[in-house]
Amino acid sequence: MERIFATERLERILPIVRTFVLEELVPLEKDHLARPFKQTEKILQQKREKVKELGLWNLHLPKEEGGQGLTLCEFGQISEVLSLAPYYGQYTFNCQAPDIGNTELISKFASAAIKEKFLQPLLEGKIRSCFSMTEPEFAGSNPTRLATTAVREGDEYVINGHKWFTSSADGAAFAVVMAVTNPDAKPHERASMIIVPTDTPGFELVRNIPIFGETGEGWASHAEINYVNCRVPVSNIIGEEGMGFRLAQERLGPGRIHHCMRWVGIAEKALDLLCQRAVTREMEEGVLLGEKQFIQGFIAESRVEIDASRLLVLRTAYNIDKVGAKAVRDQISGIKFYVANMVLKVLDRAIQVHGGMGLTDETMLANLYQHERGARIWDGADEVHKQSMALHILKSYGLDVKKKR
Ligand SMILES: Cc1cc2nc3c(=O)[nH]c(=O)nc-3n(C[C@H](O)[C@H](O)[C@H](O)COP(=O)(O)OP(=O)(O)OC[C@H]3O[C@@H](n4cnc5c(N)ncnc54)[C@H](O)[C@@H]3O)c2cc1C
Fold this sequence. Notes:
There is one protein chain. The protein has eleven helices and eleven strands. The protein has 405 residues and is of the alpha+beta class. It folds into three domains: 8-102, Butyryl-Coa Dehydrogenase, subunit A, domain 1 (Orthogonal Bundle); 129-238, Beta Barrel (Butyryl-CoA Dehydrogenase, subunit A, domain 2); 246-395, Butyryl-CoA Dehydrogenase, subunit A, domain 3 (Up-down Bundle), CATH 1.20.140. Strands 2, 3, 6, 7 and 8 form a five-stranded antiparallel sheet that branches.
């Protein structure tokens, strides 16, 4: 098949990654639901060592940090292939969220001391991290209303606040915490990002929050956390005071490419299962499900929507590489809501085609749907992205957008 965004080095790396994923990770996934994640982590540790030996570790990083110096557009295509093992692909190659976002952020904006203490072990895969911004009491869609504070006392920040949905906090070595340091500044200049090691007195992991009934553990979990008089050195700040929102935007641009390509990979997997079912399920003697036009419609629509998503995301990645994320923020918003909806639609069709079995754990479809339903909510809910994109378009038609905040 013609690959529009192919490059020579990608054509060299991609087949090796694909073979590893199909041979080493996909077979592991059949027992995914039967095995607690912490048990799987031990098996994945060995696989991670193999990835290092093959020179495929940290593929998302620049050469000087031990990666291959791939462009975002190239890495996006790797991300899709990793998602052929949707639970373990990214994790095994050390490019899993939320660590990938944190490493990009720290590597670009943090001091040399922070890099040595927190980034280096993260890059080596010795520790994990998490990102702690959303609070139960305030709308995450308007993060300027954060209540968590970081008050400077001498050479320390004293952090107090209540967070939830801090993904992967269970077992993480540190959290990047978004907290208000400058309450009197303009709304988008009030918050800062500060590193809080999870062994800091006052870091209280209350619980892993059950999602659709699944509590999860370790990397595969979402925690509620209380920060109670957590004291950290002021040097733990990333960038400068008041830069929190700017950094959050920086973190999200490439992050959306990573996630969207992951969803493209998951949708391919779902369509594959759908088609396999369509050619094996007999509806009456000699008549297979795939011969029904409704099902053919599902297949054709899914094929086109997946292909359209891939092209949209890679075009956006290509443009980020060329002109930076800020210049193509509408494209980034567009892929976020379009591809999040696409993967859920394709998963839903695949579930439908499996009948009752589609709702069980006999295939991974139901579990993937459960895991990915959040795609339309986190990193900006659909409505937020649509509004931002539409207002930007309308502004070019002269609409005077009144900012309330
Ligand atoms: C699985 C998962 C993992 C997550 N991981 C993290 C993490 O690691 N770290 C972290 O800090 N946070 C994380 N989050 C939190 C996530 O970022 C927030 O849930 C998200 O920002 C939405 O905030 P909220 O839940 O407070 O919903 P709200 O802001 O209360 O919004 C509720 C709903 O209102 C609607 N809405 C919002 N704005 C508008 C608008 N302008 N117009 C019309 N309708 C609108 C949308 O439908 C939205 O879903 C995670 C969430 C999930 C589900």
